[in-house]
Specification:
Pfam families: DYW_deaminase, PPR, PPR_2
InterPro entries: DYW_dom, PPR_At4g14850-like_plant, PPR_rpt, TPR-like_helical_dom_sf
Structural class: mainly alpha
Largest sheet: 6 strands, mixed
Keywords: Repeat
Family: Belongs to the PPR family. PCMP-H subfamily.
Strand content: 5-15%
Shape: globular
Protein name: DYW domain-containing protein
Number of strands: 6
Length: about 575
């Protein structure tokens, strides 16, 4: 009977088997069983989730024929379906036909306008809703706040947030705070989002997993190590560490903020782990240069019966590269298709070029690119250029640079690399048309800068920077350090850099950051954390190794290529970056 059919359709729709729900509705219709309102609501909701407006319109026609055109529940589900499918005019027609609207009717239509970016129309309805005698609920306010902040109107969103309790006598809930946090993060306002997160807790509003999963990615950098510990403390206080998605995000963020030991501790404390858990710690281990730890984790993962996926293979090929295990890396790459039926993507090809390149097998790397099943992208040619730079193959370096310039003709750093490689080969600059940076931001992109946190304040330095107090002391310290560093007698690599040479552009920004951190308190900083926008040059890399050994400190420096961890005169990148 209709109740049995409806129960089945509703069950499928609510358990993410929406296509089956719609197929069953079709069978019910063909069997001559007339659907009731609940049947229609379940089927229309499935269309909303699938974003299937054509099927939704068919169901709308069925609803009209069966006399459910003015039914409140059916009407609400139609408004929701049309809104989620971007059919706002159709949604509004249904909305206007419903004479006795409830809060769900208003919320669905307001949500549709907000989602489509029509916040003005949403606000008009929001006011009409209150005039009609239907008081907005916390969901209504949250929908409005989310709509405004996601469309860039932060002031209006904050105004609504503050009016909730004052005008609507409704206290903001966790979802209200989450809307603000997610919105600020979407708009690139990380500090404001973290400020809202702290304010939320000061108002005794309990963050949930959605809150944590929003703020953690904003802290996945070397400047945010203290913030990560703060968030982890909140996770422990709120007993959210048992939620696997939260633990996985913590493992990732801790690794990217420079604390792989913390990531491992969280991993070890988890009662259940999925493929994301394993992949995250494996990738973190590779990021920190811990190749053998990554390979051990890979073996343990397979022993526990988990199948590696695309992400796993990128990390494991990279781990083989770091460990110098060329044959094993090639075997892993082959096993992707042979054993796991996974087609390699560009990220896997890039990892393979690094595998060959790190060991100096440049011809093999080039042949591998030539035999690729897909067109090589920027990352693949950049990987080959790195190998050429380290191992001194000028011919291939020129070829790789020219391919990179074809892909990104406006990239100032690539233009500089092309000019340098051409100069080394004796090719005239006249043979290359280089576009001069026109806009101000293009000039800034080609300028090296570094950020460092000292005493809870982030300081930014640019190459040749002389604007900071005590500039003379910084430059004197750098000159003194430079005189103590032993330069290699011979150089096998190519002296080509993304950044202007110091003789032209001034002292590089990371050296200024080193000096700023260590002058006056050389023993106070056991850990120096720096973020740089360009690839670190060879001389700065050598300087960082010397400082880590001489001052007994650890230096974490994230540049455009990788994370460098300098300790006792060595770097986790193995001098290949």
């Amino acid at each position: 009977d209709v109740f049995t059919w409806t129960s089945m359709i509703s069950g499928f729709a609510q358990n993410n088997r929406r296509n089956q729900a719609l197929e069953l509705f079709q069978e019910m219709f063909l069997a001559g069983v007339e659907p009731n309102g609940i049947t229609l609501v379940s089927a229309i909701s499935a269309c909303a989730s699938l974003k299937a407006p054509r099927k939704g319109k068919e169901l709308h026609s069925v609803a009209v024929r069966l006399g459910f055109a003015e039914d409140l529940l059916v009407g609400n589900s139609l408004i929701d379906m049309y809104s989620k499918c971007g059919e706002l005019e159709a949604a509004r027609l249904v909305f206007d036909m419903i004479l006795e609207k409830d809060v769900y009717t208003w919320n669905s239509m307001i949500g549709g306008y907000c989602q489509a970016g029509y916040c003005g129309k949403a606000h008009d309805l929001f006011m009409q809703m209150q005039e009609s005698g239907v008081p907005p609920t916390v969901i209504t306010w949250n929908v409005m706040i989310t709509g405004y902040i996601q469309n860039g109107d932060e002031d209006q969103a904050m105004d609504l947030f503050q009016r909730m309790e004052k005008d609507g006598s409704i206290k903001p809930d966790t979802a209200s705070w989450n809307s603000l946090i997610a919105g600020y993060l979407q708009n690139g306002q990380k500090n404001k989002a973290l400020g809202i997160f702290r304010q939320m807790q000061s108002f005794s509003v309990r963050p949930n997993s959605v809150t944590i999963l929003s703020v953690l990615p904003a802290c996945a950098n070397l400047m945010a190590a203290k913030k990560v510990k703060e968030i982890h403390g909140c996770v422990l206080r709120r007993n959210l560490e048992s939620e696997r998605s939260v633990a996985n995000s913590l493992i990732d963020t801790c690794a990217k903020s420079g604390n792989i030991v913390y990531s491992k501790t969280i991993f070890d404390g988890m009662s259940t782990r999925d493929i994301i858990t394993w992949n995250t710690l494996i990738a973190g281990s590779v990021l920190h240069g811990c190749s053998y730890a990554a390979l051990d984790l890979f073996d343990l993962m397979r022993k526990e019966g988990l199948k590696p996926n695309r992400g796993t293979f990128v990390s494991i090929i990279s781990a083989c590269s770091l460990a110098g295990m060329i044959d094993e890396g090639k075997q892993i790459f082959s096993s992707m298709t042979d054993d796991y039926h996974i087609l390699p993507g560009l990220e896997h090809y890039e990892a393979m070029i690094n595998l060959f390149g790190r060991s100096g097998r440049l011809e093999e790397a080039f042949d591998f690119i030539e035999g690729m099943a897909i067109e090589p992208d920027f990352s693949v040619w950049a990987a080959l250029l790195t190998a050429c730079r380290i191992h001194g193959n000028i011919g291939l370096a020129v070829y790789a640079c020219e391919r990179l310039l074809e892909l990104e003709p406006g990239n100032a750093s690539i233009q500089r690399l092309v000019l340098q490689t051409h100069a080394l080969c004796g090719i005239s600059d006249d043979s290359l048309i280089v576009r001069k940076p026109g806009k101000r931001n293009e000039t800034r992109e080609s300028l090296g800068w570094s950020c460092i946190e000292v005493k809870n304040m982030v300081h930014t330095f640019v190459a040749g920077d002389k604007s900071k107090p005590n500039t003379e002391i910084l430059y004197s310290w750098i000159k003194n350090i430079a005189g103590k560093i032993k330069r290699p007698d011979s150089h096998d690599g190519l002296c080509i850099e993304e950044e202007e040479k110091e003789e032209i552009g001034g002292i590089h920004s990371e050296k200024l950051a080193f000096a700023f951190a260590l002058i006056g308190s050389p023993r106070a900083y056991q850990s120096i954390r720096i973020v740089k926008n360009l690839r670190m040059c060879e001389d700065c890399h050598r300087t960082a190794k010397f400082i880590s050994e001489t001052y007994g400190c650890e230096i974490f420096l994230s540049d455009s290529k990788c994370l460098h961890h300098f300790k006792n005169g060595h770097c986790c990148c193995g001098d290949y970056w």
